[in-house]
Amino acid sequence: MEKTISINAGSSTLKFKLFEMPEETVIASGAVDRIGIDGSVFTIKTADGQKKEIKQPIKNHEEAVNLLLNELLSQKIIKSYDEITGVGHRVVAGGEIFKDSALITDKALQQIEDLKEYAPLHNPANAVGIKAFKKVLPNVTSVAVFDTSFHESLPAKNYIYSIPYEYYEKYGVRKYGAHGTSHKFVAGRAAKLMGKPLEELNLITLHLGAGGSITAIKHGESYDTSMGFTPLSGITMATRSGDVDASLVAYLMEKLQVKNPNDFIDILNKKSGLFGISGISPDLRDIEDQKDSNPRAQLAIDIFVNNIVKYIGSYAAELGSIDGIVFTAGIGENSWKMRGRIGRALKLFNVEVDDEINQNGSGARFITKPNSGVPMMVIPTDEELAIAREVEKFKNEK
Ligand code: ADP
């Protein structure tokens, strides 16, 4: 029985999903949270719906990996480590080096670490996760799957910034985008739902989670995307600002007496977005709860919607025509209110939301009426499955 584990390592978290491959059956999933912080906790959910929580100090990612693998053995989810024949790691930034998923060699790992400035919140953590698994399972097919790879197809006119060209040549400053694994996965599923080949479709995919990005997909390939050099740009996110005028950085650094530019970037990454505007919470649910009593909650929602609508409008103009709009990730999959607001704001496209299906339906589905100018869909994303499928390709090459 061959199993593949998909790993998404953050600075203090390690999420995992274990699949039976090639059947794509989920055998176990879970996360280690608060690694290296007081209150570390490991949760694991098995295929029969059983959940187990272990609270114990977990000092680092290596300890987290050891605990996870031991637990798989002791719960008899696997009989020996040999059953795990593949590990797939989510890596956010692949720069211009990784145009596709890659087998993790010492060189590749070094390159992932060297790309840390392209995704400062993510790449170092991704690398720590890779090292931890390499140590415990040194001989397993280990693959890095990059958020940026799907955006490899962007034309230069959409990835070159309007700054001196030599900065691109010398320092690699350009748009790389992110969430590519998710955009690609939901686009593929949307094409199936629509009963058409992906290569014939122009889609706009909205990945709206804590981080959010929008991609214009032309004939099945990424053509433009809202995240940029790093995942900071684009739409308003839970705590990230999205697009801002770069001049405000220098101006506010002086006003706030911030000396290190990275400290200011930290404010744009961690204290801005829905949280910064509302002053309530990064979580849209908390903001929704207060929208009738707190004008800043309503303002955060209005800005969020308007930002997305502007991106859809400009991407539709770029694509020339659109065959569908896809909602995915935490907000996209769960907030019928947000989907409804966005749909109603798209009057230009004669979008007709079917309120009943939007609100009460579940899973992958159309949420617009048959006469809608553009169909809108909800497609649950599954980045872990997409990663496991990538690992399979490398196993087959062996
Ligand atoms: P991440 O980017 O961390 O992977 P997710 O895709 O899991 O994020 O999305 C998490 C976000 O989804 C939360 O911050 C929360 O605001 C939002 N969310 C989840 N369920 C709902 C809901 N029912 N209504 C509104 N927002 C929701």
UniProtKB/TrEMBL annotation:
Q: Where does substrate bind?
A: 90
State its Enzyme Commission number(s): 2.7.2.1
Q: Which reaction(s) are listed as its catalytic activity? A: acetate + ATP = acetyl phosphate + ADP
**Binding of ATP: at which residues?**
15, 207-211, 283-285, 330-334
* GO annotations of cellular component type: cytoplasm
| Recorded metabolic or biological pathway in which this protein acts | Metabolic intermediate biosynthesis; acetyl-CoA biosynthesis; acetyl-CoA from acetate: step 1/2
Which residues are annotated as active site?
Answer: 147
Q: Which GO terms describe its molecular function?
A: acetate kinase activity; ATP binding; magnesium ion binding
Q: Magnesium as a keyword?
A: yes
Q: What positions are marked as the site Transition state stabilizer?
A: 179, 240
Listed InterPro entries: Ac/propionate_kinase, Aliphatic_acid_kin_short-chain, Aliphatic_acid_kinase_CS, ATPase_NBD
Q: Which family does it belong to?
A: Belongs to the acetokinase family.
Q: How does it assemble?
A: Homodimer.
Name listed for the protein in its UniProt record:
Acetate kinase
Q: Which gene encodes it?
A: ackA
